[in-house]
Amino acid sequence: MTMEFTDRVSRVEPSATLAISALATELEAEGADIVDLSVGEPDFPTPENIVAAGKDAMDAGHTGYTTSAGILELREAIADKLADDGLEHDSDEIIVTPGAKQALYEVVQALVEDGDEVVLLDPAWVSYEAMVKMAGGDLTRVDLSETDFQLEPALDELAAAVSDETELLVVNSPSNPTGAVYSDAALEGVRDLAVEHDLTVISDEIYKEITYGVEPTSLGTLEGMADRTVTVNGFSKAYSMTGWRLGYFAGPEELIDQAGKLHSHSVSSAVNFVQHAGLEALETEAAVTEMVTAFEERRDLVVDLLAEHDVDVAVPEGAFYMMLPVAEDDQAWCEGAIEDAHVATVPGSAFGTPGYARISYAASEARLEEGIERLAEEGYL
Length: 381
Ligand code: PMP
Ligand code: GLU
What we know:
Blueprint: H1 7-10, H2 16-29, E1 35-36, H3 48-59, H4 72-84, E2 94-97, H5 100-111, E3 117-122, H6 126-134, E4 138-143, H7 155-161, E5 166-172, H8 184-197, E6 200-204, E7 229-234, E8 247-250, H9 253-266, H10 272-281, H11 286-308, E9 321-325, H12 330-341, E10 343-344, E11 346-347, E12 356-360, H13 365-377
Parallel strand pairs: 1-10, 3-4, 3-5, 5-6, 6-7
Antiparallel strand pairs: 2-8, 7-8, 9-12, 11-12
The protein binds 4'-deoxy-4'-aminopyridoxal-5'-phosphate and glutamic acid (GLU).
4'-deoxy-4'-aminopyridoxal-5'-phosphate binds at residues 40, 99-101, 125, 172, 176, 204, 206, 234, 236, 242, 247.
């Protein structure tokens, strides 16, 4: 039989980041030695205390369903963490999800419908576009590549892109794929536009804990933003827990009620014992600091190595990505780089910004050195 598929799924492609990482794994299985700088995944094991808490929770029988929004202890601990960031949310304004990706999906599904306009800051993480398209929304994209990926100098462009018709704006600082951390003045500019045009804003803060010498402000703390900001965060990056699938969103209660329906009819809840591990994660500091320090050293290493090859990059202040300026046809550049140099990166066009390749420097110093040397040897730098 021939199945008929919906427009919804036909409108999108599989995640480019995950697809390239799958290709790298496939080539490795065939015996190739691939330096995989594609997927955004910390290369450290999950800290031992968190693993132990997960195992203990399983042994203690935390293996059934939980309340759909997540166990109360975890939502309370998340509320405390958000309070440390200056955000005030009760536990019933928080939904715990299997990964921040699911949180974003539920929020977009709850807010965006056919023909709604959503504004993204480019380059933007691959799944925002797909989520908006699946919801039937239309995208307006503001290019930050002319301003070293900073938002403050591009506020006029953002002002020109938003209007009373805009339903939603997505802000991701520190940013995937650029590593940019937006200044307070930039966020205040976002606030002014959001208030003027009565916009809802998603603040994706999944890299908030991974910064180098700067303290990112949470957008929802700015005056006028509390009742129009949905803050998304998760455990994948800061605690190296990508495969555990744990994230959350916090926002006004009416949004939580609506998105909560999607949550209860789709995933039911996040995994019970994983939520208990999440409680332990929120108490973990030293291991996070160690990972962040390692990422910072790797950032410096990559920036220096690229400079030796006369390649200048916008130096990231957070996350573990940077955008490497490459050929205009970034897709061909990335395909060549993986075939000839056996170095996997993600084309900038997957993030809405051709002419670049994203490097994830969540890899050992030795592999980063090897990767850059190979790119140089094969004529890719
Ligand atoms: N937001 C951004 C900007 C990301 O880079 C990721 C990476 N996976 C996510 C959300 C989702 O993360 P997860 O689902 O693993 O929590
Ligand atoms: N967010 C990570 C990345 O950008 C993981 C892959 C994904 O979820 O798309 O590489």
